[in-house]
Amino acid sequence: MKRHSFFTRRQRAVCGCLYTHTATVREREKLAKRVSHRLLIFQRITNHITERRFLRNKKIYYLKITVKGWKHMLHIGNHISSAKGFEAMGKHALKLKADTFGFFTRNPRGSRVKALDMEDIEKFVHLLQENGFAPIVAHAPYTLNPCAKEERVLSFAKLAMEEDLKRLEYIPGNYYNFHPGSHVGQGKEVGIQKIAQILNEVLFEGQKTKVLLETMAGKGSEVGSSFEEIREILDRVSRKQYMGVCLDTCHVWDAGYDIVAHLDEVLSEFDRVIGLSNLCAIHLNDSQNPMGSHKDRHAPIGKGYIGFEALSRITNHPALRHLPFILETPHEKDEEWALEIQTLREAWKE
Ligand SMILES: [Zn+2]
Ligand SMILES: [Zn+2]
Hints:
Elements: E1 3-7, E2 15-20, H1 25-38, E3 45-53, E4 59-67, E5 76-78, H2 86-95, E6 102-104, H3 118-130, E7 137-139, H4 151-168, E8 175-178, H5 188-202, E9 210-214, H6 227-236, E10 243-248, H7 249-255, H8 263-273, E11 279-284, E12 286-287, E13 298-299, H9 308-316, E14 325-327, H10 334-346
Parallel strand pairs: 5-14, 6-7, 7-8, 8-9, 9-10, 10-11, 11-14
Antiparallel strand pairs: 1-2, 2-4, 3-4, 12-13
Helix pairs in contact: 2-3, 4-5, 5-6
């Protein structure tokens, strides 16, 4: 029996989704109870079992766990500037009605990091808890290339990841997302080896952050534009329990996965190759280019080739709806992100 489960850590709004091939109602109920017990709120739970056909040939049962009196909601936010510190980011997110967000761990062009302000961190962690944030998704700088050819670039990647992960220990239970990088002519196989090697060097026992590999558009010599490549990297990492995947909708579309007309098939493929239980977050972006273009040019939600309907099907999909969705859409003004958040929330069915 294959089973995936995910529960948010939220206090204000908890929803769970779990799916299984188990055929009998009794077995499914038992499974639901076992999982809900882990939430320690067992007595407050009512079980709703919904059945749905998801994969072509297999029947998958969705078990939706509803907690009485707690509100379900879409976990969504945008990428926020970290220039003014951690607490400022949290307040900024709240202003936009976000309950998760993305941010660069350091200047996107790389460079050194500021010393941590522990008071700021404390206030930030408190703010996240108080407001029931879903996991937040830190982003490594774009300049970080863990499969570079040059030794200097490689050692920066390792150093930056090591340092970022150490800092994120103060904000436990969140995600650290990075681009697998570009192999710059060394070939995908070498690229994959190098990425896995760095991960094997920087991951450490007991760490409180999950490291996410991002699916890429396949621009230039980018590694990670196919689910198989992501799988190959994961296969070579020894501390697999600290690894996960972040799916970028613009990137997979640009890489040639038809999430507009064949979302169920793409997700089945993801499940077959990587496993949906490894999917931890979504970068929700529209694309300026047609499917398979390998361009990686994000468009505002509904203003690109993917379109609002397809993106809203993604936020509503039973296998994805519980994940944190991060908008990396090209906007200038806060109101524009706030509007995207509001519109997607309105299109989310409880
Ligand atoms: Zn992304
Ligand atoms: Zn991108």
